[in-house]
Predict the 3D structure of the following.
Amino acid sequence: MNAIQCKLARVALGWGVRDLANAAGVSTQTISRLERGENLRTKTVEDIKTKLEEAGIEFIPENVGGVGVRFKNPMP
């Protein structure tokens, strides 16, 4: 998960920075740093990613179209 994927996932869920921080057990500053592209500990990024995945987000890896996110189960 990179910075833009984190922000895309958070916005797709309708979550603010505080919502994601609370879900992942980190500070709002940590989420902001991640979304600015600053380096964080691998474990911290993985914990945040896991919470987003548990909320229904699937991360799309780099390909010819670039990285992205989508819902695991599309809404009707």
About this structure: The longest strand covers residues 57-60.
